[in-house]
Amino acid sequence: MPRRLFMTSVSLAAFAASGPALAQAPGANQTGQAPTQTGRTTAYDAAFFAKYAPRTAYDIVQRIPGFTLDLGANNNNNGNGNTDIRGFAGVAGNVVVNGQRPSTKSETLDAYLSRIPASRVKRVEVGPGDLYGADYSSKSQVANLILIEGGGGGMTGNATIAAERHYTGAITPTASGSASLSRGPSTFNIAGDLARVDLTEEGADQVTDAATGELLEYRRKVNDTHNYSPFISASWALDKGPTNSANLNVRYHFDHFILHQSNHVIPTDAPEHDDTLVEDYPTKTFEIGGDVTRPLAGGALKFVGLASQQRRHTLDEYDAGNLGPTEVVGGFQQFSKSQRNETLGRLTWTKPKLLGFQFEAGGEGAWNTLTDNLDLFVFDENGGKTRIDLPIDNARVTELRGEFWVNAGRPLSKTLRADFGLNYETSDLKVSGDATAERKLSFWKPSITLDWQPGGGWHTQFILRRTVAQLNFYDFISAADLASGQINGGNANLQPQQAWEGRFSVEHPLFGQGKARLELGYNLISMLQDRILTPEGFDAPGNIGTGKQMYADLTLDAPLDRFWKGLRVKLHGNIQRTRVQDPISGEQRDFSGVFPRWEWDADVRRDIGKFAYGFTMSDNAHFTQFRTDVLDTRYNKGFPYTAAFIEYRPTASRTVTLKFDDISNTGGGRNLLEFFPNRTAGEPSVLDHRFRNNHVRIGLTFKQSFGGGGVAK
Hints:
Blueprint: H1 3-16, E1 36-38, E2 41-45, H2 57-61, E3 95-97, H3 109-114, E4 121-127, E5 142-147, E6 154-165, E7 171-183, E8 186-193, E9 196-209, E10 215-228, E11 231-239, E12 245-267, E13 273-296, E14 299-321, E15 328-354, E16 357-379, E17 385-388, E18 394-411, E19 416-433, E20 437-455, E21 458-468, E22 479-481, E23 486-488, E24 498-510, E25 514-526, E26 529-533, E27 539-543, E28 547-559, E29 567-581, E30 588-589, E31 598-608, E32 611-620, E33 623-626, E34 630-637, E35 641-651, E36 654-661, E37 667-674, E38 686-693, E39 697-706
Parallel strand pairs: 3-5
Antiparallel strand pairs: 1-2, 2-4, 4-5, 6-7, 6-39, 7-8, 8-11, 9-10, 9-38, 10-12, 11-12, 12-13, 13-14, 14-15, 15-16, 16-17, 16-18, 18-19, 19-20, 20-21, 21-24, 22-23, 24-25, 25-28, 26-27, 28-29, 29-30, 29-31, 31-32, 32-35, 33-34, 34-37, 35-36, 36-39, 37-38
């Protein structure tokens, strides 16, 4: 985060915490019911969110003061959610419903929350993760959505119709909807989404000699992407209390990503010509899951079962043509066919008081398989094609995985609480096909959490835990990336990285209904997964040693009604430092991947009567993928990314939103510093500088709620 913004944020937090300013000024024009502090949780009644006119539970979660939604990413460091994680623990996120986590995996947390009408949410309680079971014990913040008993009766739902206009003049329509029917303790839900997202971006590549800067080639490119990702889901929930409930979920998702790229190439030593690139990735996912909770020995016994299957067929084709193009004179083509299956069962027993402790014990077993077959071909100048053998392009991966845990916590005093956890994970992993590997892995994963509330609104927490990342089965298999001209070698001997993680957080109310929150973290990671050079000379995922990560994360969420009625500002910033020894140069460097040294975002909005308007801004430092043959650096180019909206709410159940995306006209830059044959050569040979921009997009959205209005009354 830039120093100026970080210091301004710290100053605002210090000002807010300096004494009387924390209390709401007499006569201040605040709207919505004030939050209440009960024990270790902060509760927000539905009326608190009424001024934002939420339509779904997801809208409500986005407006919880000082709260940042975690979609459940495990080792996916971008935090955006990863439904490919095996088992339940890694995709827990940080939101529960009626104190229970959803018994679905293929559906991301934001999509799940979007199925729940806002009118069903009675209140929101935010507290430390240990209140909600072992999966959340190491999370400093978890939001618990309390729904109206029996669903409030009758039918409720939402319907959304939207369209977006691109700079080319093309218009992309989409629609979604959900409906819930309540009958006594049962609630039935059905939801669907066309989830159509189109995008056109244009730009250029400039390839130069890395030593002299001499221009070697210029390319003018246009990318047309079409992502059709419709799904339909249905669920049934029976809620007769915290120890007597059941849920059943079914979901079908068809995700189809298509890229068409036109590429006008002007070399300095050859005739100019036109190339094309096509990426066609259809993926079908089916999942069925459910859970049952029953009372047992003064506690609750819960069983969760789930089965899912994902089928994916992909096509990548790069055609080198003549000018026009009128014929194909070279290129590459790649086909892949894969199927991933998961079946799991999970059993937990919780008891609020056992020898003075809040207690939980449980176990989980899962059977996972992946079969992947890949064929890569090269075209000759006459259109014929020849197959290229990659090190591991046909493989089957199987894993029998188990995890067992016990957690216990209790107050040490009126203001201090301690929670302890111990997990044991075991895995029997086998790879067959072009490579053969088998290994049995087992890990102990202890954790301790200290939670201190000294009074005056202060809340601090310290967490120390050991974590083990999951392996991505697709990392075992080779594949070509035709868009960047890179080969990703497979590594059947990849090991999971392990870390000792320390967290310290402190939070305090800000201007009455707001919140200031600071989190400091340190991770000591062994067997860090990065990029290595295989014996065959390919770049591949691999373990490179011990790495360190340190970060500071600050959130300031402030209602500023005292300055301007209806104004709310949320600022978030993160600074981090990562260090590991590069396996080729031997020098210390940052981690590969999405680990920018700073990033920040701001959300400013004003809600006044039937209208709301505002803007968001964000930016981040560059980050680099340290491949063995390429240093691949990405960055934002130009002004920080900015979007704005204007919203009109003619009735309590209807909303019209006009949104302007990328009004800053922020472009994306990418520098590929290439080494031949790889970085052992010492000096780079070519610099490929790329720039893309999708320009301003204008969207119009209509939302209609029915059977209960916007929020619970």
